[in-house]
Fold this protein.
Amino acid sequence: MLNYNDLPSPAYVCHLSKLEANLKLLQRVKTQSGAKIIVALKGFAMWSTFDLVSQYLDGATASGLHEAMLAEEKMQGEVHTYSPAFKEEEIDFIAAISDHMVFNTPSQVIRFAAKAKKINPNISISLRVNPEFSSSPVDLYNPCGLYSRLGTTIANFDESILDDLDGLNFHALCEQDVDALEGVLLAFEKNFAPYIDKMKYINFGGGHHITRKGYDVERLISVIQVFKKRHNNIEVYLEPGEAVGWETGELVSTVLDTFHNGMNVAILDTSAEAHMPDTLAMPYRAEVRGAGEAGKKAHTYRLGGNTCLAGDIMGDYSFDKPLEVGDKVIFEDQIHYTFVKNTTFNGIKLPSLVLVHQDGKVEIVKEFGYEDYKMRLS
């Protein structure tokens, strides 16, 4: 059994057995639907696991130069690279290491597609489109919202670029089930019907909560099969990030101090602001192992981060016993969209990265220190 007292603190702990279970489910979706699945590095980029990930998935999707470099270096398989706007000085390198380049607007296709194909004759070119439909629960994560900068609407589609395009991409979901995808597909097919069958592939983007308990996997498989059949067996891609890392590990922290100020407060050696930013941005309440809602158990505490930001608060939780200095507080499901977004705000130490292998062996993959903080500054 894993002894958290033996680990550095704070630390993200990824369990490879749980990761592999997610990957096997995604592989089943691939096999039965005929789709390809690539991991979105923006949501899951723990490259020490990529040897395992590449056994099940078809590659990775990147959101710019550095993610593309990581995908090309560490992931076996296809490299898809998208950016809201590519920079002139990066096009040559990105084109050379990418199998697919995804442009955000027709003007970027016109400006860069020919150059990309000259550098890499085998590269595929696609356009991100905006189906103008989304049931995303949070405006911050809604790429189809009013005045969106992400993707080309049908009103802004330029037919002159059709000969340059191999595919169309859309991304309109956020932690959602198949019914949300079906709504997006209806809008996508209605708006872009004249162009779909001219393409070699359609990318359904990410946000599919495939590995969440209760997700209707069979319905997803059917939706993909029917879409492919409706469009001459066109290639379909999915690019989940969160679904790959979903419930594969935790963030382990340690109580540094406790005191009373109208209510009990505990200061931890981690930070909501720096180490689990989506808890503030979404916002959402992270589950704490062994804890309940405030007042449900005998001892309620406000859990706070170790930075000077007043709002660096994880929330109010109750425990069976009083918290003491040195106690471990474990935040569940903290492998996706955490270390890819964390910061060294206030100079706080970044959490270590830990793998628990299928045989129970614990590997401390990376520990961070002062140099990691300093080198982000000048």
User: Anything to note?
Assistant: Residues 108 and 363 are 44 Å apart (CA to CA).
